[in-house]
């Protein structure tokens, strides 16, 4: 098998695996892991900032980025208010709102698949053009919905966990 065939197959398998993990985390009770949530906050903030920087080259992208961030933050506040907490076996668990998490996940993966399709069907340009195609344009706002949602949602959940921990002492 040629490398040109293997790379898309591996990318497809990775994307399907990430979809599986994202869907699994949107349903049912999850153990609250502050370290993992903190890492998620940092990683998604850095990636989101990179998308903003690259998207800054396109004026239309800046508008969609701002709208995406505002929409993601709004969803995070609503989602966090609908999240339930429970203490089991000495550790905190939470149940995210399935509908809001599902919507954010569908927006993210729909946009990702659309952009991957666009990258593979585009014949012009090199690596930088492909990176700008991935981060630029009006659909970059859809990606930033997910980044803003998970960054703000995780921050709120960690804050609620700290408040619950102080109240339970």
Give a quick set of tags describing it.
mainly alpha, 3-stranded antiparallel beta sheet, 6 helices
Structural notes for this entry:
By secondary structure, the chain is mainly α. The protein has one domain. The protein has six helices and three strands; from the N terminus they run αβααββααα. The protein has helices spanning 3-25, 34-55, 59-81, 98-121, 127-135, 140-168; strands at residues 30-31, 84-88, 91-95. A three-stranded antiparallel sheet has the order 1-3-2, with no helix packed on it. Helix 2 (34-55) packs antiparallel against helix 6, helix 3 runs parallel beside helix 6 and helix 4 packs antiparallel against helix 6. The longest helix has 29 residues, at 140-168. The model has no long low-confidence stretch (mean pLDDT 80).
Compact summary:
With 169 residues, the chain is mostly helical. The protein has helices at 3-25, 34-55, 59-81, 98-121, 127-135, 140-168, and strands at 30-31, 84-88, 91-95.
- Evaluate the radius of gyration: 18 Å
The low-confidence parts are none
C-alpha termini separation: 60 Å
Count of helix runs: 6
Write the layout of secondary structure elements.
Blueprint: H1 3-25, E1 30-31, H2 34-55, H3 59-81, E2 84-88, E3 91-95, H4 98-121, H5 127-135, H6 140-168
Antiparallel strand pairs: 1-3, 2-3
Helix pairs in contact: 2-6, 3-6, 4-6
